[in-house]
Amino acid sequence: MIKKESALPIYVQLEQGIKELIEKQELKPGDSIPSEREFSETYQISRMTVRQAITNLVNDGILVRERGKGTFVAFRKIEQKLKGLTSFTENMKARGMLPSTKVLDLTLKQADPYLSKMLVVEEGALIYEIIRVRYADGVPIALETLFMSNDLVPKMTKEQAENSIYEYLENQLYLKINRGVQELEASVSKKEESAILGIKEGTPVLRIQRIGYLADGRPLELAQSVYRGDLYKYTIELER
Ligand code: GLP
């Protein structure tokens, strides 16, 4: 892995060597990597050099350091294009991952002034509030709170909410979801969210809000989600 006569600095060679091990899947996400001492003894290089290589890989998000535990290969983030109005189920399936959902709460409540404004309904109108944990291959990725007017969606059961709600709205209720406005914000996880998502309180997260509209312009849903920042990233395609 290390060629002392090479013009490439040794820490760069070590970085490349570790990256290659990850590419070849000899080191897999979640695996711990050898300690600084082991690297330095194996390759007869200084611990400072090893530390520099590892720090660079941590800064690039390829490795993660966990205090008191060691350094591990990071999990690849799920990459989502900010284009097209897709559902969580569609997003995960498109990546060859198995989506699943746990419904934490499903209630009908009366619209407060905020919901009445967002969903363009009268104050006091009945609104479904659905709180779901969304998983990809069994790993919790996001916590979602969804508000939908009871007028547009007369009956929503726990079973339906455990599956794709978009599919239900489109294929059973024949609603045409046509466009959405989405906001993304950097944030950190709150205590209750952290417990549900299996992360430490204060971990970076993305807060995403979507208002989805029907073809006739009526707002169908207000969705407020918290996505794990360590597992999810967005890419935006720009044209000029
Ligand atoms: C995404 C969107 C939500 C939408 C949900 C539907 O998570 N941010 O606005 O309600 O997908 O997902 P599904 O059809 O998988 O229930």
Describe the protein's architecture and organization.
This protein is an alpha+beta fold and 240 residues long. It has a 6-stranded antiparallel beta sheet. The chain starts with 9 loop residues before the first helix and ends in a 5-residue tail after the last strand. It has helices at 10-23, 36-43, 47-59, 88-94, 113-119, 158-161, 165-171, 191-197, and strands at residues 63-66, 70-73, 78-81, 99-110, 126-136, 139-149, 177-188, 204-214, 219-228, 232-235. The longest helix has 14 residues, at 10-23. It contains 8 helices and 10 strands. 28% of the residues lie in helices and 35% in strands. Helix 1 crosses helix 3 (47-59) and helix 2 (36-43) crosses helix 3 (47-59). Strand 8 and strand 9 form a beta hairpin. The radius of gyration is 23 Å and the shape is elongated. It binds 2-amino-2-deoxy-6-O-phosphono-alpha-D-glucopyranose (GLP). Residues 87-89, 144, 146, 164-167, 210, 212, 221, 223, 225 line the site of 2-amino-2-deoxy-6-O-phosphono-alpha-D-glucopyranose. 2-amino-2-deoxy-6-O-phosphono-alpha-D-glucopyranose (GLP) is lined by residues 87-89, 144, 146, 164-167, 210, 212, 221, 223, 225.
Short description:
The chain has 240 residues and is an alpha+beta fold.
Topology, element by element:
Blueprint: H1 10-23, H2 36-43, H3 47-59, E1 63-66, E2 70-73, E3 78-81, H4 88-94, E4 99-110, H5 113-119, E5 126-136, E6 139-149, H6 158-161, H7 165-171, E7 177-188, H8 191-197, E8 204-214, E9 219-228, E10 232-235
Parallel strand pairs: 3-10
Antiparallel strand pairs: 1-2, 4-5, 5-6, 6-9, 7-8, 8-9
The protein binds 2-amino-2-deoxy-6-O-phosphono-alpha-D-glucopyranose.
